[in-house]
Write a structure and sequence with these properties.
The protein is mainly alpha-helical. The chain contains 12 helices and no strands.
Length: 253
């Protein structure tokens, strides 16, 4: 039961794969040959996820029943897993991140359809931020499995705040485009909790994730401590820091 990807998924996956190469390869001093050897599985997985996202958006707008959507997602999970197994890029870590992505789709659909009580929305959005960054962790584990590198739990934990930060700042960057196209955006949804405080709380979350990343990086042993700090500088070159003033202009417009 192999999965398939579209040219849409392939084209959309390019920017994330470029980002992945810049951030994750230096952690292991991996060569371009290492990246290229793992590339077929990486490209397929990321393109497949983009295709899943597009199909999910269509089903959400079309009002497809929740149980039917879950059945479709379950089939997609099997197809993705089958293809990665055939490529020798599947293990329990990969399976866990695929499960997290499925959970994200379920929660997003509930939020879009107003099925989450307002008082629970904040906690759900927090969980969704962690789950949404599972695509980066999925790529990370596919690469490690492909190269037969044993995962380092402290390193996986330390880089998670940066993964969440990337997803958060990407949503800020796409804020107005998502609104025009009718695509879910967690920042806009958070206005349901407090329109006035959205910019401040989002900015505070950015600073919190930055602080957590630096603290966790400092706790690592060498050479990973130094590599992680260099990774953060690379990250900020890719995703320039957003000031509170600029954030207010974006969110409160």
């Amino acid at each position: 039961m192999r999965g398939k990807v579209s040219f849409y998924g392939l084209s959309r996956s390019a920017s994330n794969l470029k980002y992945f190469g810049k951030i994750y390869m230096p952690l292991y001093e991996a060569t371009i040959e290492d990246f290229f050897s793992a590339m077929p599985a990486l490209v397929f997985a990321e393109a497949f996820i983009y295709d899943m996202d597009k199909k999910t958006e269509h089903m959400q707008k079309a009002g497809i029943r929740m149980n039917d959507m879950r059945s479709d997602v379950a089939l997609a999970r099997k197809q993705l897993a089958s293809t990665l197994k055939a490529a020798g890029a599947y293990n329990a870590y990969v399976e866990g991140e695929i499960s997290n992505l499925s959970r994200y789709i379920d929660l997003e659909t509930k939020v879009v359809r107003g099925a989450i009580p307002r008082q629970e929305l904040g906690a759900v959005l927090d969980e969704m931020l962690r789950l949404r960054s599972s695509d980066l962790r999925l790529l990370h584990h596919i690469f490690l499995k492909s190269k037969k590198i044993t995962p380092i739990s402290k390193l996986l934990h330390a880089i998670m705040p940066l993964e969440m930060l990337y997803e958060l700042e990407d949503e800020i960057k796409d804020y107005h485009r998502d609104h025009k196209s009718g695509v879910f955006n967690s920042i806009r949804t958070s206005k349901q909790i407090s329109r006035k405080l959205t910019a401040q709380t989002t900015y505070a979350l950015i600073k919190k994730l930055e602080s957590e990343f630096m603290l966790d990086a400092d706790a690592l042993t060498e050479p990973y401590r130094t590599r992680m700090k260099k990774v953060f500088l690379t990250y900020r070159a890719v995703m320039p820091a957003i000031s509170l003033g600029r954030l207010k202009k974006i969110v409160e417009a």
